[in-house]
Amino acid sequence: MAKAHLLGYPRIGAKRELKFALESFWRKESSSDDLQKTAKSLRTNHWQKQQNAGLAYITSNDFSLYDHVLDHTLLFGGQPKRFAKLPFGEKSISPENAYFSLARGNLEQPAMEMTKWLDTNYHYIVPELNSDTQFSLNAQDFLSQLDEAQKLAKNVKPVLLGPVSFLYLSKARDINKLDLLDSLTQQYVYLLQELHAKKVEWVQIDEPIFALDLDDAWLKAFERAYAWFRTSRPKLLLTTYFANVSRYQGFIATLPVDGIHLDLVRAPEQLGPWVNAIPSYWVLSVGVVDGRNIWRTDLDKALALLEPWVQRLDERLWLAPSCSLLHTPVTLEHEVKLDAEIKAWLAFGDEKLVELNIIAMALNHGVDSVANELSISRAAVASRNHSARVHHADVKARISALDIVNENRESPFSVRKITQRARLNLPLLPTTTIGSFPQTPDVRASRAAFKKGEISQTKYDADMESHITYAIREQEDLGLDVLVHGEAERNDMVEYFGEKLAGYVFTQNGWVQSYGSRCVKPPVIYGDVYRPQPMTVETASFAQSLSTRPVKGMLTGPITMLQWSFVRDDQPREATALQLALAIRDEVDDLQKAGIAIIQIDEPALREGLPLQSAAWVNYLAWAVRAFKLSASVAKDDTQIHTHMCYAEFNDILPAIAAMDADVITIETSRSAMELLDGFGKFSYPNDIGPGVYDIHSPRVPTIEAMEKMMKRAFEVIPAERLWINPDCGLKTRGWEETKLALQNMVNVAKKLREKLA
Ligand code: GLN
Ligand code: ZN
Questions:
Q1: Is 670 in the same domain as 548?
Q2: Any ligand 1 atom below 6 A from CB of 729
Q3: Residue 526 belongs to some domain of the structure
Q4: Would 507 be classed as within a structural domain?
Q5: Whose CA is nearest to atom 10 of ligand 1?
Q6: C-beta of 434 in contact with ligand 1 (< 6 A)
Q7: By residue range, what is the domain housing residue 428?
């Protein structure tokens, strides 16, 4: 009998109940009791859903008020000593307030750092380890959530992030992380003993870092840590996900655990070899339902994959989603506006539970026991495979007709630079901004009213034109050299284009937690992407008509469109990226035909698309660069292409960034005081660069001196003739007042430096 279980359930709530409870608590509009009540009712609801779906185990301790890694930091007593003043547990301040201080900072201490969870868009709070870190188990909250679950269900399986991944994903300041391994693992042993005493049969222990390139020191760390677990304890299910982990097979099979979970959505080919490699008493949990995407599972395909191994594994076969459902929306139930045909192709969290149950029934009681369910699934798969809404012959034909000639600009950069200089006539150190200007309450209200149908298209267009006019006037007054229209019409840089492209669909409640109370609602790419009509030409032309200075056309690049959407699983990501690239290419061409001389194609998400395993980087970077070039290369020599990237480590992908061959790249560099630029210098980055001279996250107005200092550092690595001056990123979260002051200073820095250089 195969058993079904989950690695984790989304915690934000079908209607983002947790988000709203958190934010109201932070605004002091509700009490800590209110918050805990919401949290408890969410947990209960999640467990009931798992019971109702007939899962063999109910997963507990996957919930968190903010972030599960932060919870582990507290569980093992690893909170940084710089927060020691916080009265954890004292009456004057609720324990929640102390907890949120770590995540969000307080008047005295900045928040702990946050970073992306592997290759997802979920951000975790990075454990901050120092030589004074002293782990000590503080399991009260953990155990009380376990109790809660055990009251409700028999087979409760708590989840833990494993000690080695915890350390690996942490940041150590004045110490070697691995020196903390023993003291940390000891706390795990204490916890496992407590769980044993509570009659927990299985503990799920996540070690996601098996998806990464691990060196010997880290493999040794696994050996050493897990040796601690040769004690009396619950059985351990070691979970891996997001990659093929076969290269560690021989090693993992010697660890003292009782089973392994594999991601068979990302890497179905690893199943057979693993069945043969594991000890005969291990369970094998197979992740056959996609925990990262929103498509209905092809149940026949999943069953066929498992078929050869079912008898042999028997009781030891567990069924699961590929990873925690944290990365999918909760339920399709409230998607009342979604097109019925497309909706039938989708499965969110709750629908995935049902799928698991169907697979378990088919394996345990024969396919006839779920004949009806299987035929519905089959029909949905067939309809998606053949739908004329998904497949457009002309899009596919255009892709297959692509020639390398389409990918390159007419002339090399050195030639283009001369042509563009003649057309644009810009001064040395041209000043510009990254695209968005303050999204004032006015701007938002107008967009919201239009969306709700409260104002007419004419009124909306007039509103937008007045915001654009204001932005252009201000920039002219400030004396900026290259202007932007300000992006008032865009709520989000991906959604805006998604809504105008064929092949995209939008959900009402398809929210996924990004961090804390922050959620994103990625659009869904369901079909071949193309651009039915121009998307930004009217706006760009209007903005340009207001000024004699160049106003940049502003587009989102193909890789960022891809990264920040739910993508098709019926074709490689590369194929979707190329389709997006062609759609953007069409827009670039129309913009230049309309007389727009500078076009910016933003690619802030290029870096985050990098595969977890470095062996796969070359291939990814090749098609990502190709997609960008395809979108840009239609530009004539005298059309200047800009790109923009931010908040990532670029130094290890500089050759790829250079290969994109944008005429100008603007990057965020002020946070690292231009350190990021050093890499561009060392690599001899060939084209123009605009290093960000000020941080856009704070309302603080940067001083002339500070920005001048930044530029002087920039001169050390890049010749002045190739430098631009701009902020780190878009200004949409700022107010106008501080923005004007900041940009005024920035323009003055440019003037001062030009005089000096002349
Ligand atoms: N053009 C966008 C803006 O200015 C870029 C945003 C980003 O880099 N994420 O808002
Ligand atoms: Zn940016």
A1: yes
A2: yes
A3: no
A4: no
A5: 730
A6: yes
A7: 411-500+535-757
Does residue 164 belong to any structural domain of this protein?
yes
Any ligand 1 atom below 6 A from CB of 494? no
- What is the 539 CA–ligand 1 centroid distance (Å)? 17
- Nearest atom in ligand 1 to 730's CA: 4
CA 556 to ligand 1: nearest atom: 1
Percentage of the residues of the chain whose pLDDT score is greater than 90 = 94
Residues designated as active site: 697
| CA–CA dist 165, 373 (Å, integer) | 39
Mutation test residue for ligand 1: of 602, 696, 732, the one with most atoms within 8 Å of CB:
602
Distances (CA, A) of 633 to 402, 409, 503, 656: 13, 5, 23, 16
Whether residues 322 and 425 share a domain: the answer is no
The SS3 assignment for 503 reads strand
User: Scanning the structure block, which residue is given the tokens 């067939």?
Assistant: 382
Report how far residue 275's alpha carbon sits from residue 250's, in angstroms, rounded to the nearest whole number: 12
416 and 366, same domain (yes or no) = no
DSSP 8-state class, residue 93: S
Closest ligand to C-alpha of residue 486 is 1
**pLDDT at position 554:** 98
Whether 566 is covered by a domain: the verdict is yes
> pLDDT tens digits, residue range 309-348?
999 999 999 999 999 999 999 999 999 999 999 999 999 9
604 within 8 A of 644, measured Cβ to Cβ: yes
Ligand approaching nearest to the C-alpha of 668: 2
Whether 370 and 491 share a structural domain? no
Cβ proximity of 523 and 548 under 8 Å: no
- Which of 121, 434, 485 has most ligand 1 atoms within 8 Å of CB, for mutation? 434
Query: Ligand 2 centre from 603 Cα, in Å?
Result: 8
Beta strands in 77-225 (DSSP E): 114-116, 123-125, 128-129, 156-161, 171-172, 202-206
- Which pLDDT score is estimated for 87? 66
Q: Is the CB of 604 under 6 A from ligand 1?
A: yes
Ligand 1: does its nearest atom lie under 6 Å from the Cβ of 730? yes
621-679 confidence digits (pLDDT tens): 999 999 999 999 999 999 999 999 998 888 999 999 999 999 999 999 987 888 889 99
Inter-helix orientation angle 573-593/393-400, to 10°: 90
Q: How far is CA 693 from CA 349, 378, 472, 527, 536, in A?
A: 43, 56, 21, 41, 28
467 and 363 in a common domain: no
- Residue 646 CB–ligand 1 contact under 6 Å: yes
Q: Which two tokens stand for residue 339?
A: 């097109």
Tell me how far apart the alpha carbons of residues 634 and 598 are, in angstroms, rounded to a whole number.
13
**Chain segment 456-515, per-residue pLDDT in tens:** 999 999 999 999 999 999 999 999 999 999 999 999 999 999 999 999 999 999 999 999
Quick one: 496 and 601 in the same domain? yes
469 and 587 both lie in a single domain: yes
